[in-house]
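Would you mind writing out the residues of a protein together with its fold in token form for me to study?
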Amino acid sequence: MAATVLELWRYPVKSLLGEELPQADLVKRGLVGDRLYAVTDRDGKLGSGKTTHRFRRLDGLFELRARFGDDRPIVTLPDGRELTVDDPDLDAFLGERYADDLRIAREDKVPHHDAAALHLLTTASIRWLAERLPESTIDRRRFRPNVLVEEGGAERVEDAWVGSRFAIGTAVIRVTERAERCVMTTNPQSELRKDPAVLRAVTELNGACLGVFAEVEQAGTVRVGDPLEKL
């Protein structure tokens, strides 16, 4: 079975839910518009599900969904309201819901991506984990890939892709490393419940990694249904 692009996802605001796309442009920075904005506090830390030197834990960010409008993201609130990222009402909501020093800011000198420009995950890896956690709901939304690749079988096939180059649509990418997972994979979103077993299993069985990161060597356009061809 040839590997093909099953889904394309963009997350205009880091750590918020994103939008599914029929096609996307890939550039050196990654998928255009992906994680271009982030929830930030007065110290410059980015809102996340974890606390580190770079991130500030803010529970409940998956209540919010972002999509791109004409020139900036639009955030959908739990009550259904849609506000642009520069709307003062959104700042007020963030202050009431999470903390009073928050705003949504565009990326400046430091990239918002955790490790690399592009994140790929295969359906084979999802099946691999689902077989080992029959009581959990293993859904690709927990892992927030940009590119969900349809692959047969139930093995972690993308682990072997590290160091390889692929044509995807009219773009060329190089897989740089396995994707190390964090507590975000366990957090509730939509109908998915909080499930610490997901991260625990990935950690114990595969060194906390599932999926891969890649860099874009040649810009281009990728569409759902395009093959992923090793070069």
